[in-house]
């Protein structure tokens, strides 16, 4: 195909590749991280819809509604490995989903390479801190830490 083509009106315009032509990478055979990021956003978004609405339904609609949510409720819920994994998946997916979105915004709007670099460093550092601390809280939470609290689950007293 030539560098320019004649249009029906007789003028010349730059030639465009056909829409179905294969994508040509400028740096050899690289992995397409932007495609994987785009796919991750769609899949994690769908998973988050299920996780968040399931979380809200169990916490707010079943039992006593919002009035049941206290220390004892969380302690009883996190005594189950199922709810620990549920909340862990929700934490990790939400954090990574948000991080990928903010990374895209930084790439779009940060004009200088140095600014873009430091914004991403701050973003990734905050992401790691939230994921590590959140994971530690979920798996090291002691439901029996405050036995004097009236909402402490009954299994803390069974010995």
TrEMBL record:
The chain crosses the membrane at residues 35-58, 78-96, 117-141. Keywords: Heme, Iron, Membrane, Metal-binding, Transmembrane, Transmembrane helix. It is found in: Membrane. Residues 1-27 are annotated as: Disordered. The keyword Transmembrane applies. It holds the Pfam family Sdh_cyt. InterPro entries: SQR/QFR_C/D, SuccDH_FuR_B_TM-su. This is Succinate dehydrogenase hydrophobic membrane anchor subunit. It comes from Kineococcus gynurae. The lineage of its organism: Bacteria, Bacillati, Actinomycetota, Actinomycetes, Kineosporiales.
């Amino acid at each position: 195909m030539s560098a320019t083509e004649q249009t029906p009106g007789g003028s010349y315009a730059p030639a465009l590749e056909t829409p179905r032509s294969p994508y040509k990478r400028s740096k050899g055979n690289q992995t397409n991280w932007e495609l994987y990021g785009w796919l991750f956003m769609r899949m994690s978004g769908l998973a988050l819809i299920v996780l968040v609405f399931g979380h809200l339904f169990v916490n707010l609609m079943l039992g006593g509604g919002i009035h049941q949510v206290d220390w004892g409720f969380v302690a009883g819920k996190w005594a189950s490995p199922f709810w620990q994994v549920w909340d862990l998946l929700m934490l990790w997916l939400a954090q990574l989903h948000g991080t990928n979105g903010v990374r895209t915004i930084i790439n779009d709007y940060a004009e200088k390479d140095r600014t873009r670099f430091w914004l991403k460093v701050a973003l990734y550092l905050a992401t790691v801190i939230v994921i590590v601390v959140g994971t530690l809280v979920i798996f090291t939470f002691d439901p029996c830490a405050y036995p004097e609290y009236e909402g402490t689950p009954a299994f803390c007293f069974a010995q």
